[in-house]
Amino acid sequence: MAAPLLSKKSVCIVTGATRGFGKSIALTFSKKLPPGSLFILLSRNSDLLNEVANLVQQRADIRAVAAVFDQSSNNQDHFNNIITDCMSNSEVSPTDFEQSLLINNAGSLEPLEFLRDLDNIADISNFFQTNLVGCVALTAKFLQLFKPSVINSRVIINISSLGAISPMKSWALYCMAKAARDMMLKVLASEEENVRTLNYAPGPLPTDMLNTASENTKDPDLKKWFEEQLAQKTLVDCDDSARKLIAVLDKNTFENGAHFDYYDEL
Amino acid sequence: MAAPLLSKKSVCIVTGATRGFGKSIALTFSKKLPPGSLFILLSRNSDLLNEVANLVQQRADIRAVAAVFDQSSNNQDHFNNIITDCMSNSEVSPTDFEQSLLINNAGSLEPLEFLRDLDNIADISNFFQTNLVGCVALTAKFLQLFKPSVINSRVIINISSLGAISPMKSWALYCMAKAARDMMLKVLASEEENVRTLNYAPGPLPTDMLNTASENTKDPDLKKWFEEQLAQKTLVDCDDSARKLIAVLDKNTFENGAHFDYYDEL
């Protein structure tokens, strides 16, 4: 049987770490990983980064370093340096760890339009810049830094969605990006040694993104569904979903590159 | 039983129409569609456009209009005007036709790199601009012009690939874009009335793209496979594949938004 994936001293990089599910992952994982593990918390939101870093470091044997990261950036240096700068600032190197984790959580939702209305080149371009381009580049930089020769366990999690495998009316760009990101990890799983990858769909979560969904979804039936979920408080708790992800990683029997949903049986 | 999809007087828009499979679709479909149909041939390659238009118009009762189209453009006017300009130049309007077809064939292949080497923001961005952004915008413009109120049959074909559903080593961007474009038509199929959409994987074709694949694919096993296909001439003929697509559209029993491969049984 494969060893549980969160049992090794790890460097754990989380994008979009200041809010919603990213924050839940950072806090929940920080209670799970062994002493000496380091969290690299990345987010556009500089105000909240230190707050989340402090929460992670409530465990005295876990460290956290935070950095402002804009996944939509077209500045090459930003991607070249973001992880290595965080490592240097923490005075650690990749060989100080037994495992590296990258949680590709950052993403955006809008524009939420029917495909017939998605004619604005700049809007579409910005969407894919944030959700695909930056995600690919950061993942490449992660793989370059944590080479198989310096670390023998690498884990990459993509925060996916039901929309990656099932079309949602008036959510074309979101579904397209999620499908593409799922495929990214499937290709990666076929290419790399010493890597475990998983596309995890966390269920409908009570985040800012869900508020946006319930306000701005154009398809009336889907909009109503989001409104009802909000009103009836039937959404999945972020921490519960993060713990389900931990259980999946603990069990470590998933097919490399698989799509796994919160509601799937473990 | 549903009526065959190519039996109506149509306006048929083909992107990437000057070479390879796009050219085959234009020529093969031109022999199939009823008199009075109009082809709108789009391509970056201005030299070859008139040549293909002339070949299409070898049938006296079929017209063709050609225009230079750059799917990677970030010029909004380019997308706003390309189809309407072609219609105006041909002195026709959407109501002159019983059916409109859009064949989203244009796309690019490189950079062909392992994911760990895909760290160049500009390269990744350009790739998705060509393969996703322009494709979404052109499709939206098509849907706006050919509204259900002016035409009661609309057909959108995405030229897909096995890579849309099955990961290919060192082809991450290509597989991601193809997966996203498949999803685009799945969402579209759920959103629109009077639309039939199909993701068609044409099989390995002896095109310029396949030469590039056999020369530049980084994964040695996959590179060898392409080289062998080329050497043994076991590739699928472009016209054969276009005729298989016609057979699928004639039968017209596919699930809306489905992925259909050349090798699938009809």
From TrEMBL, chains A, B:
It is an enzyme of class 1 (oxidoreductase). Its EC number is 1.1.1.153. It is found in: Cytoplasm. Coiled coil: none annotated. GO terms for molecular function: sepiapterin reductase (NADP+) activity. CDD domains: SPR-like_SDR_c. SUPFAM superfamilies: NAD(P)-binding Rossmann-fold domains. One of its GO terms (cellular component) is cytoplasm. It comes from the Eukaryota. The keyword Membrane does not apply. GO terms for biological process: tetrahydrobiopterin biosynthetic process. InterPro entries: Biopterin_syn/organic_redct, NAD(P)-bd_dom_sf, SDR_fam, Sepiapterin_red. Pfam families: adh_short. Its main location: cytoplasm. Keywords: Cytoplasm, NADP, Oxidoreductase. Homodimer. Belongs to the sepiapterin reductase family. This is Sepiapterin reductase. The lineage of its organism: Eukaryota, Metazoa, Spiralia, Lophotrochozoa, Mollusca.
